[in-house]
Design goal:
Helices cover 72% and strands 0% of the residues. With 351 residues, it is mainly alpha-helical. It comes from Psychromonas arctica.
Length: 351
């Protein structure tokens, strides 16, 4: 039955991916002020180096006619002179070959743009996820074993305060306190590397990397710690009420052994349920405002700027990667359930 469930899920991956990607494509087309309007606004008010787009436009005193000619030229360059369903078909064919196209405004490959931003997002996401799990799981177990005690009450107060404050506010507070914002200047204000990074020794680069990363990661960990800690605590508390715990104690095992050998493995199931979504945050998660505050040029910031600029290939390319990763990681999360606990039965789980 387990193999049948896996086959069903694999069979659903492609149509699910197709439907979600199609919805994103058509929703982007409905946004007011598309790439053509964005390019026109740029040419008129900001970008002086784009004069080559005026080549081939007939000279006339009618500014409305010039605008119409320029708009038609830009629309043709971006492919917006074609019907929407033709563009949709071309997009799907490109994506089937893992070709994400090129940015409208930079002219660079979307794949290259995403890959160039990945080191920042992976650094921020990986260390945030690792530290969150390393802190939240032991803290959740400690809170459960001292349920109703001082540790449980005090830690809950701080966790829920951190949870209630938006991540970017925490980031700004950390910057003000520890990055030269009026108090201590212990950490750098922006970026992920010092200006002289290339001249540093190997050990110097190692410390410089973590020196820049410390405050952004701390802000993300502080914001995301509460949910996993409470989840772990409640899961462990629930296991304490099970009959097998009393049996293990009666057989001579102490409290530490019961927690380590029996309660913790059983509690991991519910924690694994959120692992796929946490892994997705390594690629692109709730780190956008942290990237903005600390001037970290990552995938989240790339997607946000592309959306503002109506650079559809970049937005869709990021969504393409995000949807694909999400579907695969959710499937892996379900399979991990079975690996950890063979008692999990998928025979009654519908596709």
């Amino acid at each position: 039955m387990f193999s049948l469930y896996v086959l069903r899920r694999l069979a659903l991956l492609l149509p699910t991916f197709f439907i979600v990607l199609s919805l994103n494509f058509f929703l982007l087309q409905l946004l007011p002020g598309g790439p053509v309007e964005s390019a026109l606004a740029t040419l008129k008010g900001i970008e002086s180096s784009a004069s080559e787009l005026f080549e081939g436009i007939e000279e006339t005193d009618d500014y409305q006619e010039i605008d119409e000619q320029l708009e038609a030229k830009i629309a043709k360059e971006y492919g917006f002179d074609k019907p929407v369903f033709q563009r949709y078909k071309e997009t799907l064919l490109r994506y089937a070959a893992f070709d994400l196209g090129k940015s409208y405004f930079s002219g660079l490959s979307v794949s290259e743009l995403i890959i160039s931003k990945l080191p920042v997002s992976l650094s921020l996401g990986f260390w945030t996820l690792l530290l969150t799990y390393l802190i939240a799981i032991p803290l959740g177990i400690a809170k459960a074993t001292s349920k109703g005690g001082m540790l449980d009450s005090i830690s809950s107060l701080f966790l829920f305060i951190a949870y209630a404050i938006p991540t970017f506010i925490i980031a700004i507070v950390f910057m003000m306190l520890f990055a030269g914002g009026g108090f201590l200047a212990l950490f750098p204000l922006r970026g992920l590397a010092s200006p002289d990074y290339e001249t540093l020794s190997g050990l110097g680069k190692f410390f410089d990397y973590f020196w820049h990363l410390f405050l952004p990661v701390l802000a993300c960990v502080a914001s995301g710690l509460a949910s996993l800690t409470v989840l772990t605590r409640n899961s462990v508390v629930d296991q304490f009420s099970q009959q097998y715990v009393e049996t293990a104690v009666c057989m001579g095992e102490d409290r530490y052994q019961v927690v380590l050998r029996h309660i913790l493995p059983n509690s991991l199931l519910i924690i694994i349920a959120r692992l796929p979504s946490d892994l997705l945050s390594i690629f692109i998660g709730g780190t956008l405002l942290v990237e903005i505050v600390f001037s970290l040029d990552g995938v989240a910031l790339l997607g946000f700027e592309a959306l503002l600029q109506r650079d559809y290939p970049v937005v869709l390319g990021i969504l393409y990667c995000y949807i694909l990763l999400g579907l695969v990681l959710n499937l892996i999360g379900d399979l991990l359930y079975r690996l950890i606990d063979p008692r999990v039965n998928f025979s009654e789980v519908s596709a």
